[in-house]
Automatic annotation (TrEMBL), chain A:
<keyword id="KW-0597">Phosphoprotein</keyword>
<feature type="transmembrane region" description="Helical">
    <location>
        <begin position="238"/>
        <end position="258"/>
    </location>
</feature>
<keyword id="KW-1133">Transmembrane helix</keyword>
<keyword id="KW-1003">Cell membrane</keyword>
<feature type="transmembrane region" description="Helical">
    <location>
        <begin position="264"/>
        <end position="283"/>
    </location>
</feature>
<feature type="transmembrane region" description="Helical">
    <location>
        <begin position="96"/>
        <end position="114"/>
    </location>
</feature>
<dbReference type="InterPro" id="IPR011303">
    <property type="entry name" value="RnfD_bac"/>
</dbReference>
<feature type="transmembrane region" description="Helical">
    <location>
        <begin position="21"/>
        <end position="39"/>
    </location>
</feature>
<dbReference type="InterPro" id="IPR004338">
    <property type="entry name" value="NqrB/RnfD"/>
</dbReference>
From TrEMBL, chain B:
<dbReference type="InterPro" id="IPR017900">
    <property type="entry name" value="4Fe4S_Fe_S_CS"/>
</dbReference>
<feature type="domain" description="4Fe-4S ferredoxin-type">
    <location>
        <begin position="399"/>
        <end position="428"/>
    </location>
</feature>
<keyword id="KW-0677">Repeat</keyword>
<dbReference type="GO" id="GO:0022900">
    <property type="term" value="P:electron transport chain"/>
</dbReference>
<comment type="function">
    <text>Part of a membrane-bound complex that couples electron transfer with translocation of ions across the membrane.</text>
</comment>
<keyword id="KW-0411">Iron-sulfur</keyword>
<feature type="binding site">
    <location>
        <position position="408"/>
    </location>
    <ligand>
        <name>[4Fe-4S] cluster 2</name>
    </ligand>
</feature>
<keyword id="KW-0408">Iron</keyword>
<dbReference type="GO" id="GO:0009055">
    <property type="term" value="F:electron transfer activity"/>
</dbReference>
Length: 358, 487
């Protein structure tokens, strides 16, 4: 060895890295993804693969345009993860161009325009979802009823390909509404929630996820397992998800107790839509959420609160994506006001009177 | 005893097993010793010997200069061969004035001051003077002159002397071994420090990952009512003095005040032993315990190495380095620094010499920050490394200063956990250096301004006096004229 000093301290390091973090998140998503790919069959599998592929392609294209190294960025896994999360939030039988547009919205507009990994203000997957939802409301709300792969009524591989390519016109007979969508539609027709819930899938189906919904969001239990895995591996902490889910649950429980005909219960709020996925995999996105634990609790509360408001009062049946984006915008200011107190100083930065008991 | 929680921190892999069970071995005499005149924080010492002088072991070679300084003594007997600029054991590789001592192989002692057989019967002032004479400095790594700390503390009501045996840096086992092998000397040293500053109580904090040391120290402390052993959680950097005091007392020391202000005096356990030896045996500080370890070292050991021994000699004594050794580090892997080469000497602050492999260091190129916030969680100072680093990268030092980057003591916890392998400590060290320079510059400017203003005022005063004198003369002349006329 030479005596020269090529590197700076510290000379030891915890064994974590960007790509490892991404891999962990993907690993955590695996059970829910596998379950839903099984549930919705070949079209879902094609759409899932395409979304990730498009995301990688758009990322590579942007980096080439910016004359930045392409391979290291592709290898860090962030584009794959974004694609994965977009795919999970799409209706499983959506056509291929939805995936392509999603990739462009997420990677090109929400991420690379801001400067690439770590620089974006808004969660790329949620930008894609919201942009698609507003632009293509029909395609984005056409949820397929469960058709587990290899079962009698499931589309075979060729039909699946046709669905993804958009050449299979007759989807109406196969599609169904999501639980939240159903409640909203019925409410607008004057039918109380108490009545609608009877036609919803049972609690077991809700938890397991055998119900219509986005490609990766239906299974509350598998998402929850993935989230717990991330907490155990210390990739995420409990602060954001617990704060968000608790807010959602308490608001749902409180208001459905006051007016059960008007508001869905806390349990439905938790188990339907993107609540679980949002709490564990979206709102916890490092780049777009606050860095301090206090900030994360505020952030989680905000997401839960806004989600409930949008679900209960706004025109859209689901509000997680909107809520996350709105809260993303507040992240810098939350960060500013939730910095920890510096050792030996007051919150204002003045030295404490010396020898203060904590 | 009751412990208090300390914010943040990390649990690095400790990697102490290579040396923790091995007895301290004394390093044999080598042909040449290199003694930098500045081995401590504060002003450089000044040589009091000349080239060609024969000196005995323990003889004074350089005397302290100024208020914060420490002397340097001969680690063995021999002849002063040179007093010249040589590469200092610092990553900069910059030179520092160094005395070169050629050993005569006899290792014979010079005449030493009186050994106090019972130091507790001597005037505390004499103890403090003895510590100053012996050149004892903080052996934990900061190398602050112990006597200065004692003198400052003796002016204040000290309620507790804390001996720091946390040794929270990975690899290092010097303090651990000292406590296991010299428990009595450590405890006597702690009691003597308490005596020298008039403190009623000694608490010795040891991390729980050193159960043998804790057991031995507890046993040795049994004889004294006012000596207590506290087993600290293994949580780096609990050995940082401020955090140690918080863990033991719950007191949060204010930014920019001294620990002594809350009535606590902290010294490393090795320092306590050196204090004891200086009083009880009249020995100056001429050797220290050094852990020689790391995956690149063939036979890791804990050594009792004379100050001034070239690092190379320690490495050779430990069987040399293997081909995997990638980087030589002095100190621990978290706060230690790289060495420019292995010809530099062991100095008073050298707690460890590590030959680390690339596997152990796990050094990788930096990736973009994900804002994961781990650095905020682990920062023991409650800082926000993620924000400070992004400000510093854009050279917004004023804003980084507002976020209190100057309170960072470079413990390295943030860099350790960073998944993007950002050189965070590097950024903060850069910012701190720049801000210090700026403050210095400002001080200079202010001084110049003040001097200029003073000069202006002086000139104006001279002018005024002259005018006054002229007026007076004129008036006198007029009066004289009048008188003349009247006459």
């Amino acid at each position: 060895m030479s005596g020269s000093i090529a590197i700076s301290g510290p000379f030891t390091h915890a064994d974590n890295s960007v790509s490892r973090t991404m891999q962990m998140v993907m690993l955590a998503l695996l059970p829910a993804t596998a379950f839903d790919l099984w549930l919705f069959g070949w079209p879902a599998i094609f759409l899932f693969g395409l979304t990730i592929l498009f995301c990688l392609a758009v990322e590579a294209g942007c980096l080439m345009l910016a004359k930045r190294p392409v391979l290291p960025a592709l290898k860090d896994g962030s584009a794959i993860l974004s694609g994965w999360l977009i795919a999970m939030s799409l209706p499983p039988w959506a056509p291929w161009w939805i995936a392509l547009l999603g990739a462009v919205f997420a990677i090109a507009l929400a991420k690379q325009v801001f400067g690439g990994l770590g620089q974006n203000l808004f969660n790329p997957a949620m930008v894609a979802r919201v942009a698609l939802l507003i632009s293509f409301p029909l395609q984005m709300t056409q949820f397929a009823a469960p058709h587990p792969i290899f079962t009698a009524h499931a589309p075979d591989i060729l039909t699946g390909l046709k669905i993804t390519l958009g050449c299979e016109g007759n989807l109406d007979s196969l599609s169904a509404a999501s639980a939240l969508g159903h409640i909203k539609t019925e409410l607008t027709r004057g039918i109380p929630v108490t009545h609608t819930v009877q036609s919803l899938p049972g609690l077991k189906e809700m938890i397991l996820g055998i119900k219509p919904g986005s490609m990766g969001e239906t299974s509350a239990i598998f998402i929850l397992l993935g989230g717990l895995f991330l907490m155990w591996r210390r990739i995420i902490s409990w602060h954001t998800p617990v704060s968000m889910l608790l807010t959602l649950f308490l608001l749902g429980t409180l208001f459905s107790a006051i007016n059960p005909a008007r508001y869905a219960s806390g349990m439905i709020e938790l188990l339907s839509g993107a609540s679980m996925l949002g709490a564990f995999f979206i709102a916890t996105d490092y780049v777009t959420s606050p860095v301090s634990k206090t900030g994360q609790i505020i952030f989680g509360f905000g997401v839960g609160f806004l989600t409930w408001i949008i679900r209960s009062f706004a025109g859209y049946p689901e509000g997680v994506a909107f809520a996350v984006l709105l809260m993303n915008a507040t992240t810098p200011i939350i960060d500013h006001y939730s910095r920890p107190r510096v050792f030996g100083r007051t919150r204002q930065g003045q030295p404490v009177a010396f020898g203060d008991k904590k | 005893m009751k412990l208090f929680s300390v914010r943040g921190g990390i649990h690095p892999s400790y990697r102490k097993q290579a040396t923790t069970a091995k007895k301290i071995e004394p390093l044999p005499v080598v042909p040449f010793y290199f003694l930098p005149l500045r081995q401590h924080s504060g002003a450089s010492a000044e040589a009091v010997v000349n080239i060609g002088d024969h000196v005995g072991k323990g003889q004074l070679l350089a005397a302290p200069v100024g208020r914060i300084s420490a002397p340097v003594h001969a680690p063995t007997s021999g002849i002063v061969r040179a007093i010249q600029n040589m590469t200092a054991p610092h990553p900069s590789g910059l030179p520092g004035m160094t005395i070169v001592l050629e050993s005569d192989g006899k290792d014979s002692w010079a005449e030493l001051p009186e050994a106090y057989s019972d130091p507790f019967s001597v005037d505390p002032k004499l103890i403090r003077e003895r510590v100053a004479w012996a050149g004892v400095v903080g052996l934990g790594g900061a190398a602050f002159p112990a006597a200065v700390k004692l003198e400052q503390s003796s002016q204040k009501p000290i309620k507790m002397v804390v001996l720091n045996g946390a040794e929270c840096e990975p690899y290092l086992t010097g303090d651990d071994r000292v406590m296991q092998e010299y428990a009595d000397e450590v405890i006597s040293g702690g009691r003597l420090i308490a005596y020298a500053v008039g403190a009623p109580k000694v608490v010795i904090g040891i991390e729980r990952n050193k159960p043998e040391a804790i057991a031995i120290m507890k046993k040795a402390a049994e004889a004294y009512d006012n000596v207590e052993i506290a087993d600290l959680p293994a949580q780096y950097p609990v050995g940082s003095a401020r955090h140690l005091v918080q863990a033991l007392t719950g007191l949060e020391i204010s930014a920019r005040t001294r620990i002594a202000d809350v009535g606590v005096l902290v010294q490393n356990v090795g320092t306590a032993r050196a204090v004891w030896r200086s009083a009880h045996y009249g020995e100056p500080l001429i050797s220290r315990i050094v852990t020689v370890s790391g995956g690149g070292m063939n036979d890791p050991k804990t050594l009792d190495a004379p100050i001034g021994t070239p690092v190379k000699a320690l490495i050779e004594y430990c069987g040399g380095m293997n081909e995997k050794a990638e980087q030589i580090v002095t100190g621990g892997p978290l706060m230690g620094v790289g060495l420019p080469n292995i010809d530099v000497p062991v100095i008073k602050g050298t707690a460890g010499i590590l030959a680390l492999t690339s596997e152990e260091m796990d050094h990788r190129p930096a990736e973009p920050c994900l804002r994961c916030g781990r650095c905020v969680d682990v920062c023991p100072c409650g800082l926000s490394p993620v924000e400070m680093s992004s400000l510093i990268r854009r050279d917004k030092l004023d804003e980084a200063e507002q976020l209190q980057v100057m309170d960072c003591f470079s413990c390295g916890s943030c860099s350790y956990v960073c998944p993007s392998h950002l050189p965070l400590v590097q950024y903060f060290n850069y910012a701190k250096g720049e801000i210090w320079n700026r403050r210095d510059e400002e001080r200079k400017q202010n001084k110049i301004k003040a001097l200029a203003a003073a000069k202006e005022a002086r000139l104006a005063e001279v002018l005024r006096q002259r005018q006054l004198a002229a007026e007076r003369a004129k008036a006198a002349k007029a009066a004289a004229n009048k008188e003349e006329k009247a006459v």
